[in-house]
């Protein structure tokens, strides 16, 4: 067993959190992760409040363990989704893709554990002052919408800057990663891409296969011109986006239109040509599709073996 203060705070067995991926992190995956002793997080995406409420209730039907809801701060339903989380008394809310300042006070008042995803030391310090409970520090190796600092430098800098537990994200998929995160001072890891390749995840088989077949250089980032870089596996869609991004006479609105709905297309239809196959650089390390429980057990026992072996590297001299 590996126990950190994150486990105590969240009432979970293993310090492993599943990223709240839009369209991907549905009750099936979330309940499986929480049942296995990690923390599952529903992907709120930009879904309307009633849909989020249904997803919460469906997850509750499948598990009585704690789970969370991810709220991307760009959702047009921000206030209403926050209200749903409060009404449904969810244990944890994770925010992403922005500054959570507007949603922290109502969630705190409702006694909900708040874990913002941040990509920089500056935002980590700001959210700690707002009174959040823990932080996911996410490096630019991650899939989807990303910041611009890589995980290895980001984690220790965030750990030094705040007192609350830091959860490392961006580039984690195995026990070596978990052990490394703990060595950097993190209290746990969050994984997204690795959890897509589980049997419970509802993503189309083509999506999972695309990750399993990927190598270390399979992903690329697009959307820099829009100020929202997104990492996805290279395909005709990312090539088209890159070409159009370079064209001076295409408007930002047209680029946004080109990206809209493309993640859903890949997740639900398995369209690997026109869809956006968001995934992290760690895709090249993922070789199988396994149940969430098997994955979590494997990662924990790998990390235990590594941590147990570490003292043998230390030579004590007289
Ligand atoms: O949110 C994510 N990853 C996502 S959201 C998403 S949905 C989407 N769909 C279609 C196109 C684009 C996106 C896919 N992937 N991760 C959490 C995260 N948040 N990573 C980085 C950040 C972040 C970045 C900057 C958080 C805050 C921030 O600061 C903004 C500020 O105001 O300082």
Structure, explained:
Helices cover 42% and strands 14% of the residues. It contains 14 helices and eleven strands. The longest helix has 18 residues, at 292-309. The mean pLDDT is 97. Ligand TUI binds next to strand 5 and strand 7.
Structure characteristics:
single chain; 318 residues; alpha/beta; TIM Barrel; 2 domains; eight-stranded parallel beta sheet; three-stranded antiparallel beta sheet; binds ligand TUI
Structural class: alpha/beta
The shape, in one word, is: globular
Give the count of structural domains.
2
Helix count, per DSSP?
Answer: 14
User: How are the strands ordered across the major sheet?
Assistant: 1-9-8-6-5-4-3-2
* DSSP strand tally: 11
CATH topology of the largest domain: TIM Barrel
First-to-last CA distance: 33 Å
The name of the CATH architecture of the largest domain is Alpha-Beta Barrel
Order of helices and strands: HEHEHEHEHEHEEHEHEHHEEHHHH
Spans of 5+ residues with little confidence (pLDDT < 50)?
Answer: none
**CATH classification, class level of the largest domain:** Alpha Beta
Q: What is the alpha-carbon Rg in Å?
A: 19 Å
The hetero molecules present are: ligand TUI
The largest sheet is: 8 strands, parallel
Query: CATH superfamily of the largest domain, called what?
Result: Aldolase class I
What fraction, in percent, of the residue positions are helical? 40-55%
Give the strand content.
Answer: 5-15%
Mean pLDDT: 97
């Amino acid at each position: 067993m590996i126990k950190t203060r994150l486990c105590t705070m969240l009432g979970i067995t293993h310090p492993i959190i599943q990223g709240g991926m839009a369209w991907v992190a549905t009750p099936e995956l979330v309940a499986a992760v929480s049942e296995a002793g990690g923390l599952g997080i529903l992907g709120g995406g930009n879904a309307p409040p009633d849909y989020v409420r249904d997803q919460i209730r469906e997850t509750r039907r499948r598990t009585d363990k704690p789970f969370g809801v991810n709220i991307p701060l760009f959702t047009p339903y921000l206030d209403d989704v926050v209200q749903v989380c409060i009404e449904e008394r969810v244990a944890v809310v994770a925010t992403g893709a922005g500054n959570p300042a507007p949603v922290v006070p109502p969630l705190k008042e409702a006694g909900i554990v708040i874990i913002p995803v941040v990509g920089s030391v500056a935002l980590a310090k700001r959210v700690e002052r707002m009174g959040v409970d823990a932080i996911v520090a996410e490096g630019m190796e991650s899939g989807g919408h990303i910041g611009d600092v890589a995980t290895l430098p980001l984690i220790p800098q965030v750990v030094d800057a705040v007192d609350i537990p830091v959860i490392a994200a961006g580039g984690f998929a195995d026990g070596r990663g978990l052990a490394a995160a703990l060595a950097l001072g993190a209290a746990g890891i969050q994984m997204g891409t690795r959890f897509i390749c589980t049997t419970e995840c509802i993503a189309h088989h083509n999506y999972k296969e695309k990750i399993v077949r990927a190598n270390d250089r399979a992903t690329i980032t697009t959307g820099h011109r829009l100020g929202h870089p997104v990492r996805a596996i290279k395909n005709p869609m990312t090539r088209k986006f890159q070409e159009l991004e370079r064209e001076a006479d295409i408007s930002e609105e047209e680029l946004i239109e080109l990206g809209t709905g493309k993640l859903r297309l890949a997740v639900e239809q398995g369209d690997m040509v026109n869809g956006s196959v968001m995934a992290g650089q760690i895709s090249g390390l993922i070789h199988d599709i396994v149940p969430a429980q098997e994955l979590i057990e494997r990662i924990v026992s790998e990390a235990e073996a590594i941590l147990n072996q570490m003292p043998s590297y230390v030579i004590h001299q007289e």
